[in-house]
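Reopening this ticket.

The earlier resolution said the output was attached, but the attachment link was broken on my side. Pasting everything inline this time so it's all in one place.
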Amino acid sequence: MITLCGFAISNYYNKVKMVLLEKGIAFDEETVAPGTKAETTLEASPLGKVPFIRTPQGTLCESEVIVQYIERTHPQPALLPDDPWAAAKVHELTTFIELHLELVVRELYPQAFFGGRVSEETQAAVRKKLVKHIAGFKRLARFGPYVAGETFTTADCAAYVSLPLVAMATQAIYGTDLLAEGGVDWKPYIKLVGQRPSALRVSADRKAAQEQQLAAMRAK
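Inline output:
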């Protein structure tokens, strides 16, 4: 049995969760806050990052490594093409979404979502980088109708949980959705993927976790 460790608000946690659900794999969930210094967590994820998984063979961290492990151990239904080149293009898209879009816009999250402040210098630097990176993403993405083409893949699990964050954060900070401004018509795509049972489950669990977090903050 696989145990998915992390929390339901994390987009990377939800990427892995979508893959597990798409595969029809039975799994348990264990709530683990990011950045914890608990030794049991650091043994599984040395930087205290989530998600990570517990398996009969041991623990594994880093979401894309976990996804690749799941694909290798549970090849059906396939979420990667058999052709090595096509599979590499799926990984390329996932890497681009996470490294060049989500990780860049993450610098805006403290102000966009958590009531903090981000310096004007950081805002300007992030915007400049995102405009360039979104143009690059537009060249790679197919939306035909899925992000890598005709077939739903692991790249869609990454795109579904991360692209809205890019749009919402930039709308909050700059007053404009840089994805849409860059010509990426992401909303119909998210609506399409959002109809899948895996996406419905992930979205419902995320909403419930957000409501619990808000209630806990109000109770303090």
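Reporter confirms the inline version is readable. DSSP finds ten helices and four strands in the chain. The radius of gyration is 17 Å.
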